[in-house]
Specification:
37% helix
Length: 421
């Protein structure tokens, strides 16, 4: 990649700084500067500073491509650290059932939920899955997401999990949005193994995980550690098998009840514990001591009409690094919009706007082991930037219900512009 890009006439640059997760009071440390310019070269941020300093260091840059930001705000490219992008089929009928008062757990017990999507996904090819991912990725990019984690977990057989991961790789290679793949073979026990859970766990640990690692198709290993799904003991077995094959652990933890998932994440040194709506005080303490990132998914509480959200303020005050994510999936959080999740993080989780920005950028990047390259606007980092149609950072929550994204830059290239931009 070659070329120079100059962003000028910026109203405000808002960014956390660093390459490690921000926690406690430091999660709110966001640098907000006015009158800056940003220069990107060969996909990397080369300069951030005033017009006069840029002229002194780099000269006029007559040959650079220019973006006139017209007093708009620039933030780092958003990072979504928890999605389930490769799926087939839809679940609107279940959505209607939930609106009528049927719980998510009741729907799952009747053969719906995750298993409904498993049936549709098994029937699709990897090419079809990749094709269906593309409009989701287009929407994510249009809402400012430049990097996202993507999980398997709707196959639950060796061939179908590999198929999902191949679809993630194909979609990643064909789209500006970067995808980071996670194996979630232990997402649910499939119908054919309901009477023999141990055989399914053998399949996951002894066949699916080794085959995934050998093919180089996943970076992380995940498990749904939850009452009625996989116990802490079963989850430990899955995650430790993944570690033995080079898959860094992360896990769905304590979503509906305190299942001990947060404590397990801490014991294993997982990169993240996700959901945490029902996390215990002991679980919070363990996360804080271990440095595991809490990935909170307020869109899931909202979509499931739970009216109960993860205790974000207690997590931050305990010193747990907090990230936020969409949990994009067809059943419990059907959205690609991190700005929507950002608003929920401020209004429902109680994060400050600065804390929420760090949660959607640097902390999210760090829990994907990408903090060295993305998540902040700093010289030497990858040039992933979002130009907001807003005069300052506060408008990300203040002006809600709109798409605030004016333009998106990925590796120093303009990859999305809003209509009329």
């Amino acid at each position: 990649m070659t070329g120079t890009l100059l962003l000028h006439s910026i109203g405000e640059v808002a960014t956390p700084r660093g390459t490690t997760p921000r926690r406690g009071p430091r999660q709110a440390e966001v640098e907000r500067t006015r009158g800056s310019e940003i220069v990107c070269r060969d996909g990397t941020i080369l300069f951030v500073g005033s017009h006069d300093e840029r002229q002194r260091q780099l000269g006029p840059l007559d040959d650079a491509e220019r973006i006139d930001c017209s007093n708009r705000t620039v933030i780092p490219g958003l990072v979504d650290p928890h999605t389930h992008l490769p799926w087939a089929g839809t679940r609107e009928e279940e959505f209607a059932q939930r609106l009528a008062g049927v719980s998510y757990q009741e729907i799952a017990a009747a053969g719906g939920g995750i298993l409904s999507t498993v049936r549709s996904t098994r029937a699709a090819s990897d090419e079809e899955l990749a094709l269906q991912m593309r409009p989701r990725m287009n929407r994510m990019l249009s809402w400012g997401t430049t990097t996202a984690e993507a999980k398997s977990g709707y196959g639950l057989t060796l061939d179908d999990e590999i198929k999902q991961l191949r679809a993630i790789r194909r979609a990643h290679e064909e789209h500006p949005l970067d995808l980071v793949p996670t194996l979630l073979a232990a997402h649910e026990v499939p119908p054919e193994h309901r009477k023999d859970r141990e055989r399914f766990l053998d399949l996951v640990c002894e066949e699916i995980i080794p085959a995934t690692a050998e093919a180089g198709l996943a970076r992380f290993g995940d498990v749904f550690c939850e009452e009625g799904v996989f116990s802490c003991q079963e989850s430990r077995r899955v995650l430790e098998a993944g570690v033995q094959h080079g898959l860094s652990p992360r896990l769905h933890a304590d979503e509906f009840v305190d299942s001990g998932g947060a404590r397990l994440a801490a014991e294993l040194g997982a990169l993240s514990a996700d959901h945490l709506i029902a996390v215990s005080p002991e679980g919070i303490e363990a996360l804080a001591a271990s440095g595991v990132t809490a990935v909170l998914l307020p869109g899931t509480s909202f979509f499931l009409m739970k009216h109960t959200y993860a205790p974000a303020r207690r997590l931050v005050e305990a010193g747990v690094p907090v990230a936020i994510a969409t949990d994009c999936n067809p059943g419990s959080s059907h959205t690609e919009s991190l700005p929507m999740v950002f608003v929920l993080a401020v209004f429902e989780l109680g994060l400050s706007i600065e804390e929420a920005l760090t949660a959607a950028t640097l902390n999210a990047a760090c829990c994907l082991e990408l903090g060295e390259t993305i998540g902040s606007i700093e010289v030497g980092k990858q040039a992933d930037l979002v130009v907001l149609d807003a005069p300052n950072l506060l408008h990300l929550a203040y002006h809600y219900g709109i798409n605030p994204v004016h333009q998106v830059i990925k590796r120093g290239q303009l990859v999305h512009s809003a209509p009329g931009a």
